[in-house]
């Protein structure tokens, strides 16, 4: 009897062991399946800064035309630390609204880059949005590719009355040499200009009339695709004095002429530089305002224009940005077998 009980006990113990082993194997297999789920291979990431309302169907902000072109059938992907959801299509194009200003945009970009849902090791980054331009260099509805990115805020400034008469009121702060300016990949820039050179830009009657308030030749012309230094500042600097200071900074840093004032690109470049490098980064901006008033307008009046005194052309500029940028995005995706390795030689 005792032998029978002993045998039954051993059989039951073996059964429990086998059951536990099977459960552990099943659990391990579940964990393995969860941990080895494949991330999305991102070919091009499009970063906008703000959206006015919905991503589609209302007044467009910076993301809406991108969303309607690439992500209308995509589901939102939540990313911890990012300001908004990320959208990806089946062709490896992803995009998101990163937030306005240096902190919001760069923190969102870092959260997305470090998130394991995405493989961005070979991705190209297209940072796009609206901006201002000096009337001596650009006009409303212009589209500009960035050649250099400069952080407008990193340095020392003082009141003009406390310095030398008519001298610049800015000097760079020592220790910021590696993060105050970034030269983007000139080879990639040439590709972007080559691909988008023949895009027909949209214009508006209100913008055409508004341009005539300015005497500068560049301000009065039709919009075009160009390139130059994009000046990043959380400070919404305005007026001919600060515009001249921005140009002074571009010359001081050995960069191209200042043509665009915006609020995010240099900060995003710092995130990319620390993680993936900036070899595959592009900055694309459309001008929706001049960085100063016309000769008969005070700077403060231009900053807060009366009804009917705005430049117009906002939606047209957004259309131009997406039309120009999409040519490059589509070219990269369609020729991914070449572009995934590196920026190819120009034809």
TrEMBL record:
Signal peptide start-end: 1-23
Q: Does the keyword Ribosomal protein apply?
A: no
Record keyword Lyase present:
no
Annotated keywords = Signal
Q: Which residues cross the membrane?
A: none
* Entry superkingdom: Bacteria
**Gene3D superfamilies per UniProt:** Nucleoside phosphorylase domain (3.40.50.1580)
State the protein's name: Purine nucleoside permease
Q: Which species expresses this protein natively?
A: Glaciecola petra
